[in-house]
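Sample entry follows:

:::
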Amino acid sequence: MIQVFNEPPQGLQVAPHEPRILAAGHQIGVREIKFGEVHDKDGLMLALGAGLALPGAFGRNWDALYDVLTDPDRTPPRLALLLCDYADFRRRHPHLSQELEATLLDAQRSAAEQGRDLWLLLEEPDSDPKAW
């Protein structure tokens, strides 16, 4: 299996075993977003704010999230978002997850255009990589 951090980020990817240790070895910052208790957009924005350690002034909307993820002054040049319990969130909230994924993928493309890396890693113990 190809080690995910040896290649440029490519959409949503299944997280490797021990992603934090592997990321540290590649000098990649990791931010963990926990989706287990998210039930609506407000909860999602709070989870993102907590996981990204954003100030209370964070706009809590898709544009503000995109701005944070593409701002070289706010995020490291090599960043991995570890999306925990995302498959269950996606099943429970398909419309909300669709909006989130569009924003994350746009931010990933923009980061790449800036010469930066933004990995979007799904941490699911029994995940099927082909499902993504």
Observations:
- Residues 127-132 have pLDDT under 50 and may be disordered.
